[in-house]
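Bug: C-alpha coordinate stream looks shifted between consecutive jobs. Job 1:
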Amino acid sequence: MESLYHQANRLVQETQQCFEKLEKVSDLNSDPIEKEIQARIDTITSICERLDIMVYKEPLTRRTNSKYRVDQVKYDKDHLQAALDTYKNRKYQRLQEEREREALLSHQFKLNNYEETAILMDHSQSFYSSKHHDSLKSANQGVDDMLQSGAGILESLKDQRMTLKGAHRRLYDIANTLGLSNTTMRLIERRAYQDRFILIGGIVFTCLVIAAIIYYFT
Protein backbone atom coordinates (compact mmCIF):
# COMPACT_ATOMS: atom_id res chain seq x y z
CA MET A 1 0.00 0.00 0.00
CA GLU A 2 2.81 2.41 0.80
CA SER A 3 4.37 1.94 -2.61
CA LEU A 4 1.04 2.67 -4.35
CA TYR A 5 0.49 5.74 -2.17
CA HIS A 6 3.94 7.14 -3.04
CA GLN A 7 3.39 6.34 -6.71
CA ALA A 8 0.11 8.28 -6.67
CA ASN A 9 1.80 11.27 -4.99
CA ARG A 10 4.59 11.19 -7.55
CA LEU A 11 2.04 11.19 -10.38
CA VAL A 12 0.26 14.17 -8.81
CA GLN A 13 3.49 16.16 -8.74
CA GLU A 14 4.37 15.21 -12.32
CA THR A 15 0.88 16.19 -13.48
CA GLN A 16 1.28 19.59 -11.84
CA GLN A 17 4.52 20.05 -13.76
CA CYS A 18 2.66 19.16 -16.97
CA PHE A 19 0.25 22.00 -16.25
CA GLU A 20 3.21 24.37 -16.10
CA LYS A 21 4.24 23.19 -19.58
CA LEU A 22 0.67 23.55 -20.79
CA GLU A 23 0.61 27.24 -19.93
CA LYS A 24 3.69 27.89 -22.07
CA VAL A 25 2.46 26.38 -25.34
CA SER A 26 -0.10 27.70 -27.78
CA ASP A 27 -3.60 26.31 -28.06
CA LEU A 28 -2.79 24.59 -31.35
CA ASN A 29 0.12 22.67 -29.80
CA SER A 30 -1.47 21.77 -26.47
CA ASP A 31 -3.22 18.52 -27.46
CA PRO A 32 -0.29 16.16 -26.67
CA ILE A 33 0.20 17.67 -23.23
CA GLU A 34 -3.54 17.52 -22.53
CA LYS A 35 -3.58 13.82 -23.42
CA GLU A 36 -0.56 13.21 -21.19
CA ILE A 37 -2.23 14.97 -18.27
CA GLN A 38 -5.47 13.03 -18.76
CA ALA A 39 -3.55 9.74 -18.90
CA ARG A 40 -1.78 10.53 -15.61
CA ILE A 41 -5.08 11.48 -13.96
CA ASP A 42 -6.63 8.20 -15.14
CA THR A 43 -3.69 6.31 -13.66
CA ILE A 44 -4.10 8.12 -10.33
CA THR A 45 -7.81 7.23 -10.38
CA SER A 46 -6.98 3.57 -10.89
CA ILE A 47 -4.46 3.65 -8.04
CA CYS A 48 -7.01 5.30 -5.73
CA GLU A 49 -9.50 2.52 -6.45
CA ARG A 50 -6.91 -0.05 -5.47
CA LEU A 51 -6.00 1.94 -2.36
CA ASP A 52 -9.67 2.09 -1.30
CA ILE A 53 -9.73 -1.71 -1.26
CA MET A 54 -6.44 -1.99 0.58
CA VAL A 55 -7.48 0.49 3.29
CA TYR A 56 -10.01 -1.96 4.72
CA LYS A 57 -7.28 -4.58 4.97
CA GLU A 58 -5.22 -2.35 7.26
CA PRO A 59 -5.30 -2.86 11.04
CA LEU A 60 -7.90 -0.78 12.88
CA THR A 61 -5.17 1.32 14.50
CA ARG A 62 -3.86 2.41 11.09
CA ARG A 63 -7.08 2.36 9.04
CA THR A 64 -8.18 5.92 9.88
CA ASN A 65 -4.83 7.45 9.01
CA SER A 66 -4.56 5.39 5.80
CA LYS A 67 -8.03 6.43 4.68
CA TYR A 68 -7.19 10.08 5.32
CA ARG A 69 -4.07 9.81 3.14
CA VAL A 70 -6.02 8.12 0.33
CA ASP A 71 -8.73 10.80 0.51
CA GLN A 72 -6.04 13.46 0.19
CA VAL A 73 -4.74 11.83 -2.98
CA LYS A 74 -8.29 11.62 -4.35
CA TYR A 75 -8.81 15.30 -3.57
CA ASP A 76 -5.63 16.22 -5.46
CA LYS A 77 -6.75 14.08 -8.37
CA ASP A 78 -10.18 15.78 -8.51
CA HIS A 79 -8.50 19.18 -8.37
CA LEU A 80 -6.24 18.26 -11.31
CA GLN A 81 -9.21 16.98 -13.33
CA ALA A 82 -11.16 20.18 -12.66
CA ALA A 83 -8.17 22.28 -13.73
CA LEU A 84 -7.84 20.31 -16.96
CA ASP A 85 -11.56 20.66 -17.75
CA THR A 86 -11.37 24.41 -17.11
CA TYR A 87 -8.40 24.74 -19.44
CA LYS A 88 -10.18 22.80 -22.19
CA ASN A 89 -13.28 24.99 -21.89
CA ARG A 90 -11.24 28.19 -22.09
CA LYS A 91 -9.26 26.82 -25.02
CA TYR A 92 -12.47 25.95 -26.87
CA GLN A 93 -13.84 29.45 -26.28
CA ARG A 94 -10.62 31.07 -27.53
CA LEU A 95 -10.56 28.92 -30.66
CA GLN A 96 -14.26 29.58 -31.29
CA GLU A 97 -13.75 33.33 -30.98
CA GLU A 98 -10.75 33.12 -33.30
CA ARG A 99 -12.75 31.21 -35.93
CA GLU A 100 -15.64 33.69 -35.71
CA ARG A 101 -13.23 36.62 -36.04
CA GLU A 102 -11.58 35.08 -39.11
CA ALA A 103 -14.97 34.32 -40.66
CA LEU A 104 -16.07 37.89 -40.10
CA LEU A 105 -12.89 39.33 -41.61
CA SER A 106 -13.08 37.07 -44.65
CA HIS A 107 -16.78 37.65 -45.29
CA GLN A 108 -17.58 39.82 -48.30
CA PHE A 109 -20.55 42.11 -47.81
CA LYS A 110 -22.75 42.93 -50.79
CA LEU A 111 -24.49 46.24 -51.26
CA ASN A 112 -28.27 46.16 -51.24
CA ASN A 113 -30.28 47.16 -54.29
CA TYR A 114 -31.07 50.81 -53.60
CA GLU A 115 -34.36 50.85 -55.51
CA GLU A 116 -35.73 47.73 -53.82
CA THR A 117 -34.67 48.97 -50.42
CA ALA A 118 -36.18 52.38 -51.02
CA ILE A 119 -39.49 50.89 -52.09
CA LEU A 120 -39.67 48.69 -49.01
CA MET A 121 -38.76 51.58 -46.71
CA ASP A 122 -41.26 53.91 -48.36
CA HIS A 123 -44.03 51.36 -48.11
CA SER A 124 -43.18 50.62 -44.48
CA GLN A 125 -42.97 54.28 -43.57
CA SER A 126 -46.25 55.02 -45.38
CA PHE A 127 -48.02 52.18 -43.56
CA TYR A 128 -46.78 53.14 -40.11
CA SER A 129 -47.31 56.85 -40.79
CA SER A 130 -50.94 56.22 -41.78
CA LYS A 131 -51.48 54.03 -38.75
CA HIS A 132 -49.91 56.64 -36.47
CA HIS A 133 -52.05 59.38 -38.05
CA ASP A 134 -55.23 57.37 -37.50
CA SER A 135 -54.28 56.78 -33.86
CA LEU A 136 -53.63 60.49 -33.28
CA LYS A 137 -56.90 61.41 -35.00
CA SER A 138 -58.84 58.96 -32.83
CA ALA A 139 -57.16 60.25 -29.67
CA ASN A 140 -57.86 63.88 -30.68
CA GLN A 141 -61.51 63.08 -31.29
CA GLY A 142 -61.72 61.40 -27.89
CA VAL A 143 -60.21 64.44 -26.16
CA ASP A 144 -62.68 66.75 -27.97
CA ASP A 145 -65.60 64.59 -26.83
CA MET A 146 -64.37 64.67 -23.23
CA LEU A 147 -63.91 68.45 -23.38
CA GLN A 148 -67.45 68.88 -24.64
CA SER A 149 -68.72 66.57 -21.91
CA GLY A 150 -66.77 68.53 -19.29
CA ALA A 151 -68.15 71.81 -20.61
CA GLY A 152 -71.65 70.40 -20.33
CA ILE A 153 -71.00 69.33 -16.75
CA LEU A 154 -69.69 72.79 -15.83
CA GLU A 155 -72.71 74.42 -17.45
CA SER A 156 -75.00 72.09 -15.52
CA LEU A 157 -73.23 72.96 -12.26
CA LYS A 158 -73.57 76.64 -13.08
CA ASP A 159 -77.29 76.24 -13.65
CA GLN A 160 -77.60 74.33 -10.37
CA ARG A 161 -75.76 77.13 -8.59
CA MET A 162 -78.16 79.71 -9.99
CA THR A 163 -81.08 77.51 -9.00
CA LEU A 164 -79.77 77.13 -5.44
CA LYS A 165 -79.11 80.86 -5.24
CA GLY A 166 -82.67 81.60 -6.37
CA ALA A 167 -84.06 79.06 -3.94
CA HIS A 168 -82.03 80.61 -1.14
CA ARG A 169 -83.38 84.06 -2.02
CA ARG A 170 -86.96 82.80 -2.09
CA LEU A 171 -86.52 81.04 1.23
CA TYR A 172 -85.09 84.23 2.69
CA ASP A 173 -88.08 86.21 1.43
CA ILE A 174 -90.50 83.61 2.72
CA ALA A 175 -88.77 83.63 6.08
CA ASN A 176 -89.05 87.39 6.31
CA THR A 177 -92.68 87.15 5.36
CA LEU A 178 -93.41 84.54 7.95
CA GLY A 179 -91.33 86.34 10.57
CA LEU A 180 -89.00 83.47 11.33
CA SER A 181 -86.55 83.85 14.14
CA ASN A 182 -82.97 85.02 13.72
CA THR A 183 -81.70 81.56 14.75
CA THR A 184 -83.60 79.88 11.97
CA MET A 185 -82.29 82.43 9.50
CA ARG A 186 -78.69 81.79 10.60
CA LEU A 187 -79.20 78.05 10.14
CA ILE A 188 -80.50 78.63 6.65
CA GLU A 189 -77.57 80.90 5.83
CA ARG A 190 -75.07 78.38 7.24
CA ARG A 191 -76.59 75.62 5.10
CA ALA A 192 -76.42 77.85 2.03
CA TYR A 193 -72.78 78.64 2.86
CA GLN A 194 -72.00 74.92 3.11
CA ASP A 195 -73.79 74.24 -0.18
CA ARG A 196 -71.60 76.87 -1.81
CA PHE A 197 -68.43 75.01 -0.77
CA ILE A 198 -69.92 71.74 -2.01
CA LEU A 199 -70.64 73.36 -5.36
CA ILE A 200 -67.14 74.87 -5.59
CA GLY A 201 -65.61 71.53 -4.63
CA GLY A 202 -67.59 69.78 -7.34
CA ILE A 203 -66.45 72.30 -9.93
CA VAL A 204 -62.79 71.98 -8.88
CA PHE A 205 -62.97 68.17 -8.91
CA THR A 206 -64.53 68.16 -12.37
CA CYS A 207 -61.85 70.53 -13.68
CA LEU A 208 -59.11 68.30 -12.24
CA VAL A 209 -60.61 65.20 -13.88
CA ILE A 210 -60.83 66.97 -17.24
CA ALA A 211 -57.24 68.25 -16.91
CA ALA A 212 -55.98 64.74 -16.04
CA ILE A 213 -57.78 63.26 -19.06
CA ILE A 214 -56.36 65.92 -21.38
CA TYR A 215 -52.84 65.35 -19.98
CA TYR A 216 -53.11 61.58 -20.35
CA PHE A 217 -54.31 61.62 -23.95
CA THR A 218 -51.96 64.33 -25.14
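Job 2, same session, no restart:
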Amino acid sequence: MRIGNLLNRVAGAAVLAFVLLVTSTGLAIWWNARQDARPASDAIVVLGSAQYNGVPSSIFEARLEHAIALYEEGVAPVIVTVGGRAEGDEFTEAEAGREYLANGGVSRDALLAVEEGVDTLESMRVVATAFGEHGWTSAVVVTDPWHAMRAERMAEDQGIDAESSPTRQGPAVQTRGTQFRYILRETAAYLLYRATGESVAGAPGIG
Protein backbone atom coordinates (compact mmCIF):
# COMPACT_ATOMS: atom_id res chain seq x y z
CA MET A 1 0.00 0.00 0.00
CA ARG A 2 1.34 3.40 -0.91
CA ILE A 3 2.17 5.77 1.93
CA GLY A 4 -0.17 8.36 0.44
CA ASN A 5 -3.11 5.98 0.50
CA LEU A 6 -2.30 4.93 4.06
CA LEU A 7 -2.20 8.55 5.22
CA ASN A 8 -5.52 9.24 3.51
CA ARG A 9 -7.11 6.29 5.28
CA VAL A 10 -5.71 7.36 8.64
CA ALA A 11 -6.96 10.91 8.07
CA GLY A 12 -10.37 9.61 7.02
CA ALA A 13 -10.60 7.43 10.12
CA ALA A 14 -9.62 10.36 12.34
CA VAL A 15 -12.29 12.59 10.80
CA LEU A 16 -14.90 9.86 11.20
CA ALA A 17 -13.92 9.30 14.83
CA PHE A 18 -14.21 13.03 15.52
CA VAL A 19 -17.63 13.24 13.88
CA LEU A 20 -18.83 10.25 15.89
CA LEU A 21 -17.48 11.79 19.11
CA VAL A 22 -19.23 15.12 18.49
CA THR A 23 -22.47 13.42 17.47
CA SER A 24 -22.54 11.06 20.44
CA THR A 25 -21.77 13.92 22.85
CA GLY A 26 -24.54 16.06 21.38
CA LEU A 27 -27.00 13.17 21.68
CA ALA A 28 -25.93 12.56 25.28
CA ILE A 29 -26.54 16.23 26.11
CA TRP A 30 -29.95 16.04 24.43
CA TRP A 31 -30.82 12.87 26.36
CA ASN A 32 -29.55 14.18 29.70
CA ALA A 33 -31.56 17.37 29.22
CA ARG A 34 -34.73 15.29 29.28
CA GLN A 35 -33.92 13.59 32.58
CA ASP A 36 -35.04 14.91 35.96
CA ALA A 37 -33.39 13.36 39.01
CA ARG A 38 -34.73 14.35 42.42
CA PRO A 39 -33.07 12.12 45.04
CA ALA A 40 -33.05 13.21 48.67
CA SER A 41 -29.86 15.28 48.95
CA ASP A 42 -27.94 17.55 51.30
CA ALA A 43 -28.57 20.63 49.19
CA ILE A 44 -30.09 22.02 46.01
CA VAL A 45 -27.46 23.97 44.06
CA VAL A 46 -28.72 26.72 41.75
CA LEU A 47 -26.15 27.88 39.22
CA GLY A 48 -26.15 31.63 38.79
CA SER A 49 -26.88 33.61 35.68
CA ALA A 50 -27.21 37.30 34.89
CA GLN A 51 -28.84 39.64 37.38
CA TYR A 52 -29.66 43.31 36.99
CA ASN A 53 -29.27 45.45 40.11
CA GLY A 54 -30.27 42.50 42.26
CA VAL A 55 -33.09 41.32 39.98
CA PRO A 56 -32.50 37.88 38.40
CA SER A 57 -32.66 37.62 34.63
CA SER A 58 -35.41 35.49 33.11
CA ILE A 59 -32.96 32.57 32.76
CA PHE A 60 -31.92 32.86 36.40
CA GLU A 61 -35.50 33.32 37.59
CA ALA A 62 -36.58 30.09 35.89
CA ARG A 63 -33.84 28.21 37.74
CA LEU A 64 -34.78 29.77 41.07
CA GLU A 65 -38.46 28.96 40.65
CA HIS A 66 -37.56 25.36 39.91
CA ALA A 67 -35.37 25.26 43.03
CA ILE A 68 -38.32 26.48 45.12
CA ALA A 69 -40.45 23.64 43.75
CA LEU A 70 -37.75 21.09 44.63
CA TYR A 71 -37.36 22.57 48.12
CA GLU A 72 -41.09 22.46 48.75
CA GLU A 73 -41.10 18.86 47.53
CA GLY A 74 -38.58 18.04 50.26
CA VAL A 75 -35.67 17.14 47.97
CA ALA A 76 -33.19 18.95 50.26
CA PRO A 77 -33.31 21.16 53.36
CA VAL A 78 -30.99 23.80 51.92
CA ILE A 79 -30.76 25.79 48.68
CA VAL A 80 -27.30 27.00 47.68
CA THR A 81 -27.03 29.88 45.22
CA VAL A 82 -23.68 30.43 43.56
CA GLY A 83 -22.17 33.12 41.35
CA GLY A 84 -19.92 36.13 41.64
CA ARG A 85 -20.16 39.77 40.67
CA ALA A 86 -19.49 41.03 37.15
CA GLU A 87 -17.48 44.19 36.73
CA GLY A 88 -19.62 47.18 37.63
CA ASP A 89 -22.31 45.13 39.37
CA GLU A 90 -23.47 46.02 42.87
CA PHE A 91 -24.83 42.54 43.61
CA THR A 92 -23.45 39.05 43.12
CA GLU A 93 -25.52 36.43 41.32
CA ALA A 94 -25.59 34.35 44.50
CA GLU A 95 -26.86 37.29 46.53
CA ALA A 96 -29.57 38.15 43.99
CA GLY A 97 -30.65 34.51 43.95
CA ARG A 98 -30.77 34.28 47.72
CA GLU A 99 -32.94 37.39 48.03
CA TYR A 100 -35.30 36.15 45.32
CA LEU A 101 -35.72 32.85 47.14
CA ALA A 102 -36.22 34.56 50.50
CA ASN A 103 -38.86 36.82 48.99
CA GLY A 104 -40.44 33.72 47.48
CA GLY A 105 -41.05 32.22 50.89
CA VAL A 106 -37.93 30.13 51.51
CA SER A 107 -36.61 30.54 55.06
CA ARG A 108 -33.29 32.38 55.22
CA ASP A 109 -32.05 29.62 57.50
CA ALA A 110 -32.40 27.29 54.49
CA LEU A 111 -30.37 29.52 52.17
CA LEU A 112 -26.63 29.71 51.53
CA ALA A 113 -25.13 32.19 49.06
CA VAL A 114 -21.68 31.30 47.73
CA GLU A 115 -20.73 34.63 46.24
CA GLU A 116 -17.94 33.52 43.91
CA GLY A 117 -17.67 31.93 40.51
CA VAL A 118 -17.48 33.45 37.05
CA ASP A 119 -18.13 30.20 35.16
CA THR A 120 -19.49 26.74 35.85
CA LEU A 121 -16.18 25.14 36.80
CA GLU A 122 -15.17 27.86 39.24
CA SER A 123 -18.69 27.80 40.70
CA MET A 124 -18.48 24.07 41.31
CA ARG A 125 -15.08 24.45 42.93
CA VAL A 126 -16.30 27.03 45.46
CA VAL A 127 -19.50 25.05 46.05
CA ALA A 128 -17.40 21.96 46.79
CA THR A 129 -15.44 23.98 49.34
CA ALA A 130 -18.69 25.10 50.98
CA PHE A 131 -19.95 21.51 50.99
CA GLY A 132 -16.78 20.40 52.74
CA GLU A 133 -17.20 23.09 55.40
CA HIS A 134 -20.75 21.93 56.12
CA GLY A 135 -20.10 18.21 55.85
CA TRP A 136 -22.39 17.83 52.82
CA THR A 137 -21.75 15.28 50.08
CA SER A 138 -24.80 15.17 47.79
CA ALA A 139 -26.59 17.73 45.62
CA VAL A 140 -29.29 18.22 43.06
CA VAL A 141 -28.01 20.75 40.54
CA VAL A 142 -30.47 23.18 38.97
CA THR A 143 -29.60 24.81 35.66
CA ASP A 144 -30.88 24.86 32.08
CA PRO A 145 -31.52 21.50 30.36
CA TRP A 146 -28.64 21.72 27.87
CA HIS A 147 -26.19 22.76 30.57
CA ALA A 148 -27.13 19.94 32.95
CA MET A 149 -24.74 17.21 31.79
CA ARG A 150 -21.62 19.38 31.97
CA ALA A 151 -22.64 20.95 35.28
CA GLU A 152 -23.30 17.52 36.79
CA ARG A 153 -19.96 16.21 35.52
CA MET A 154 -18.05 19.19 36.93
CA ALA A 155 -19.76 18.77 40.30
CA GLU A 156 -18.85 15.09 40.39
CA ASP A 157 -15.26 15.88 39.47
CA GLN A 158 -15.14 18.15 42.54
CA GLY A 159 -16.20 15.28 44.78
CA ILE A 160 -19.93 16.02 45.00
CA ASP A 161 -22.42 13.19 44.53
CA ALA A 162 -24.51 15.12 42.01
CA GLU A 163 -27.70 14.65 40.06
CA SER A 164 -29.37 17.26 37.88
CA SER A 165 -32.93 18.54 37.79
CA PRO A 166 -33.03 21.13 34.99
CA THR A 167 -35.69 23.78 34.70
CA ARG A 168 -38.22 23.45 31.88
CA GLN A 169 -38.96 27.17 31.71
CA GLY A 170 -37.13 30.23 30.43
CA PRO A 171 -35.51 31.47 27.22
CA ALA A 172 -33.18 28.47 26.89
CA VAL A 173 -36.10 26.18 26.02
CA GLN A 174 -38.42 28.50 24.11
CA THR A 175 -37.77 27.46 20.50
CA ARG A 176 -36.20 24.53 18.68
CA GLY A 177 -33.68 26.88 17.11
CA THR A 178 -32.59 28.10 20.53
CA GLN A 179 -32.34 24.55 21.81
CA PHE A 180 -30.21 23.50 18.84
CA ARG A 181 -27.80 26.42 19.36
CA TYR A 182 -27.45 25.60 23.05
CA ILE A 183 -26.76 21.94 22.29
CA LEU A 184 -24.04 22.86 19.78
CA ARG A 185 -22.43 25.27 22.24
CA GLU A 186 -22.64 22.79 25.10
CA THR A 187 -21.18 20.00 22.95
CA ALA A 188 -18.10 22.14 22.27
CA ALA A 189 -17.84 23.24 25.91
CA TYR A 190 -18.21 19.69 27.25
CA LEU A 191 -15.59 18.26 24.89
CA LEU A 192 -13.20 21.10 25.74
CA TYR A 193 -13.65 20.39 29.44
CA ARG A 194 -13.06 16.66 29.02
CA ALA A 195 -9.97 17.33 26.93
CA THR A 196 -8.38 20.08 29.04
CA GLY A 197 -10.09 20.06 32.43
CA GLU A 198 -10.90 23.72 31.99
CA SER A 199 -14.06 25.72 31.42
CA VAL A 200 -14.82 28.26 28.72
CA ALA A 201 -16.49 31.64 28.94
CA GLY A 202 -19.77 31.94 27.07
CA ALA A 203 -23.36 33.01 27.41
CA PRO A 204 -24.77 33.23 30.94
CA GLY A 205 -24.70 29.81 32.53
CA ILE A 206 -22.69 28.32 29.66
CA GLY A 207 -19.14 29.06 30.74
